[in-house]
Amino acid sequence: MAKSTFVYVTYIRTTPEQLWTALTDAEFIKQYWFGMRCESQWTAGSSWKLVSADGQVFDAGEIIEVLPLRRLVIRWQNQNKPELKAEGPSQCTMELEPSGSAVKLSITHSIEREPSQLIAAVSGGWPKVIANLKSLLETGAIALQEPYPVESTQAGKL
After folding, report:
1. What is the pLDDT of residues 33-44, one digit of tens each?
2. Each residue of 99-123: b (16+ CB within 10 Å) or e?
């Protein structure tokens, strides 16, 4: 079967310890993931959920692999959009690699189907989430307040 994959790589001026905490601490996650929180024990075999501020489960799955400060693999399935849930589980791999005064963060999100509406959706979401993560770790403030801001009616007008 064909595979759909989204890959996102960035360099964040931080330490592996700080980045790992940012990726696995529920309270820190809420700061950059638009109020969402991840619920997990962060051990292989434990459950994983991405939950909105009002308690709605958006995504759920299982932690497949944990190598603290280096690698986190999550089996991930959308829970709130029937057409995305119907595609079945995907896999999200986060890899951290020290690079001088920064850490290279690579996110690979894939699913065993081509084409995939889920991968199309995450390819729009991950850049916003990671932009906020990077900005928060480097400056103490997020870059984007809303995941889908309403465009100004004046946008594009001179």
Report:
1. 999 999 999 999
2. eeebbebebebbbebeebbbbebbb
The span from the CA of 109 to the CA of 94, in Å, is 9
Give me 11's structure tokens: 């360099």
Type and span of the H or E element at 134: helix 117-139
- What end-to-end distance do the CA atoms of the chain give, in Å? 49
What contacts 23, CB < 8 A, 6 or more positions away? Answer: 29, 72, 94, 133
Instruction: Determine how β-strand 4-12 pairs with β-strand 102-111.
Output: antiparallel
Sheet strands side by side (includes 57-67)? 4-12, 102-111, 90-99, 71-78, 57-67, 47-51, 37-40
Whole-prediction pTM: 0.89
Q: Closest Cα to residue 8, out of 138, 154, 110, 137?
A: 110
